[in-house]
Specification:
Beta-Lactamase; 22% strand; 3 domains; Rossmann fold; alpha/beta
């Protein structure tokens, strides 16, 4: 999507918006008469439809320019024309006025509280109010509803009967929206600025050092099952992608998510045999829904070398642990937790609420036989930027790595083999068990030397 550049401060020029809405209606009607509106299309990827739309927009602009000049007016600035054309395309195939922020590589989060108010958080920590981003709440809802119909594996409703929406945008960003339960529609977009990267790239960004990168790379290679924990926006998905980059391309991967986000199936050079599965909500009759727990169970019949669960949110935790312990070693998942130790409490809470009502002792036995390492990601001040407050630049960093050893009744026995150093970033701590050290050594890890080079 072409970035929109004509703005008044951080708000779009109102005259551009008015003209773009006018032309959008004409173009949408013309496309519908060609049959484009009679079936569900992922229009953002339909090159022929997009090209036809651009041609129609160009003609509409030419007609208006000719009319203006015939009446004695001056031709518009080329930048103005380009902004109108880009906005029309964004309204038809993207997120309208929000699209310019989705296209901005420096933007990290977009939070919208109705059509009139929106905030953008940048990668350097700045948070700025922008907007308005739609003419009305109804227009904003229509924009999000159209996105739900176009993007994803299946059409997703967004209305008073289904007031929640989770969606992956074409660039990999995650969109979450609610309506009817709030005074105004609320939209939150989490942009993934790093969608195709390796552990080496994260070393360069300061998330971890070379020794820990070598350790984690070896853990993936020797098929240790990993849980990545952290708070919201801590960088769990970013780290999970980088860990997955260490999986040999010969292996078959199945990813399971509430809403597609990881995008490993799109990295065909790195992961040529990857299947992405997405949970599905039931229809208006309450049927047809497929939960993440069902998908995890289904993955056991798909000849997967590894199963990757994008985010453990509830009762899928038990089938996930079963998958890890039943010949799917090397599988991975992310989970919300405040520390690597807190992961065990979170899993126990999910398990006791699941349909199986698994007691603590049984949960711990299952966990100890499934998970090898818990990797905790935290967010701290960026010393390179001289940040001293929460409002300043922040650095995502791995703070802890915990090896799961065994279970004893209501307790999980574990060793924090990497723990926070003076700067909050993980440093070597407790020694590994002999069996673990031997396994990692066969996969290329040497505690005296980084092992980032892949053996294939």
């Amino acid at each position: 999507m072409t970035s929109l550049t004509t703005r008044t401060g951080d708000s779009f020029d109102p005259s551009v918006s008015r003209l773009a809405r006018e032309i959008r209606s004409e173009v949408a009607e013309s496309l519908a008469t060609r049959g484009s509106g009679n079936r569900r299309l992922d229009l953002a990827r339909e090159a022929s439809v997009l090209e036809a739309a651009r041609e129609l927009v160009g003609r509409a602009l030419e007609q208006r320019i000719a009319s203006t000049m015939a009446g004695g007016g001056n031709p518009p600035d080329p930048g103005y024309e380009r902004a109108v054309a880009d906005l029309v395309i964004a309204m038809l195939f993207g997120l309208g006025l929000l699209q310019r922020f989705v296209d901005d590589p420096s933007v990290e989060n977009i939070d919208v509280n109705g059509a009139a108010r929106a905030w953008v958080t940048y990668a350097d920590g700045r948070k700025q109010e922008v907007g308005p981003i739609a003419e009305s709440d109804d227009e904003l809802i229509a924009t999000i509803r159209a996105a739900g119909a176009r993007f994803g594996l299946a059409e997703r409703r967004f209305d008073s009967a289904q007031p929640e929406l989770d969606l992956r945008l074409p660039d990999g960003s995650r969109l979450s929206a609610v309506m009817s339960v709030t005074e105004h529609p609320v939209i939150d977009i989490r942009r993934h600025r790093l969608s195709d990267h390796t552990l080496g790239d994260l070393v360069a960004l300061g998330m971890l050092d070379e020794e820990l990168a070598g350790f984690l790379a070896a853990a993936v290679r020797c098929k240790r099952s990993l849980l990545v924990s952290g708070a919201m926006n801590a960088g769990k998905t970013t780290l999970l992608r980088a860990l997955a980059a260490e999986i040999p391309p010969i292996e078959r991967i199945v990813t399971i998510e509430q809403a597609l986000e990881l995008g490993l199936d799109r990295q065909t050079d790195r992961h040529p045999d990857c299947v992405a599965m997405e949970a599905r909500l039931p229809n208006t009759e309450g049927v047809g829904g497929i939960s993440m727990a069902q998908l995890v169970r289904r993955s056991l019949r798909m000849n997967a070398s590894r199963v990757i669960v994008g985010e453990v949110l509830g009762d899928e935790v038990i089938p996930m642990l079963n998958a890890m312990s039943q010949g799917r070693s090397g599988s991975m998942a992310t989970i919300h937790a405040d520390s690597s130790l807190g992961v065990f409490r979170r899993i126990a809470a999910y398990a006791v609420q699941a349909p199986e009502r698994l007691p603590l002792e049984a949960t711990n036995l299952l966990l100890a036989g499934s998970v090898h390492f818990v990797i905790h990601v935290d967010v701290g001040d960026d010393p390179a930027a001289g940040a001293t407050s929460r409002a300043g630049p922040r650095r995502r960093q791995i703070a802890s790595v915990r090896e799961v050893v065994d279970a004893e009744g209501s307790m999980i026995v574990s060793n924090e083999v990497w723990r926070p150093g003076p700067d909050g970033r993980a440093r070597p701590a407790a020694p590994l068990r002999d069996a673990t050290a031997t396994a990692l050594a066969t996969a290329g890890y040497d505690s005296r030397r980084s092992a980032l080079a892949r053996p294939w």
